[in-house]
Amino acid sequence: MNSIIEVNDLVKRYGDFTALNHLNLEVQQGEILGLLGPNGSGKTTAINCILALLRYDHGSIKVFDQAMTPASKDAKRRIGYVMQSVGVIDELNVRENIDYFCSLYVSDAKKRKQMVSEAIEFVGLQDFQKRMPKKLSGGLLRRLNIACGIAHKPELIILDEPTVAVDPQSRNNILEGIKELNRLGATVLYTSHYMEEVEQLCDRITIIDGGKKIAEGTKSELIAQTNSSEKIYAEVGDLSEAQLETLRKLPFVAEAVLNHGELCVSCGKGDNNLSALLAAFEKHKIDFGHIRNQLPTLNDLFLEITGKELRDTHA
Ligand SMILES: Nc1ncnc2c1ncn2[C@@H]1O[C@H](COP(=O)(O)OP(=O)(O)OP(=O)(O)O)[C@@H](O)[C@H]1O
Ligand SMILES: [Mg+2]
What we know:
Order of helices and strands: EEEHEEHEHHHEHEHEEHEHEEHEH
Radius of gyration: 24 Å
Largest sheet: 6 strands, mixed
Distance between the termini: 35 Å
Bound molecules: adenosine-5'-triphosphate, magnesium ion
CATH architecture of the largest domain: 3-Layer(aba) Sandwich
Number of domains: 2
Helix content: 25-40%
Mean pLDDT: 92
CATH superfamily of the largest domain: P-loop containing nucleotide triphosphate hydrolases
CATH class of the largest domain: Alpha Beta
Strand order of the largest sheet: 6-7-8-3-9-10
Number of strands: 14
Low-confidence stretches: none
Number of helices: 11
């Protein structure tokens, strides 16, 4: 696999504060890499270093196999950057904004017209081409921000929390759009503090906290690193202590507790826990109503490594 971005041992300090603490990060060609971390963990700082917009104190960064510097014009032309803070020009309408950002990379006006039209269609802003940014809803403004970043058809797209403050439907559109760009060949670096988004979108995930990488892998590789296990919840009404003991002795059961008529079974690491439990219910004549299972999440892993909840850190 070719590395499109290689960050080695990156240290970035703001005065006495260390924002990136020996960070390593790799984005491989053709993948969607999710950079997941709570607010203030250093995601935007890492991106700004990668794009040579920010000086750093130690380490090295390669993009497209070349050292990245402020003068790396060729590399920058091949990158699309969608900033966390919407960066459009208030005096230009939707179409003019996209055309302006595209013109920074593409000088041929005819070619650009085509690219701008495609970008507008891609983010679904056909009906708003003449609208000024201030008159757009939050979701539409985010879509414009994305169109400005991708109109020149970059090979590498870096998106910094593009769905913050966006309603669920627009968020889904944005995520589907990013998947489509990836299918069309773009490599994607996507930052978020929303675990579910990164789980849904990304091939691989790097989790950072306090400017450090704390875990990386595919979703299933990360989940396999947790000590947490699948939990099955079943409405069972009343169970005798003897029935509970029987369940606890089943080989795949680590723990079984009854709480207000709901049985919670914590399972071992194996597969097919649900069907094994259903078979046990039948064998031991345990009636049940609603039943659901909960697989371990990235939040469990984050909690185990850092002792705090990823969820609680949402803005
Ligand atoms: N210019 C700056 N001067 C001083 N400290 C800064 C500066 N920019 C960022 N920081 C601090 O560095 C840390 C990392 O910030 P950064 O913006 O990279 O985090 P983030 O992961 O992008 O957070 P968020 O999810 O809120 O966007 C934070 O503690 C932040 O307060
Ligand atoms: Mg940020």
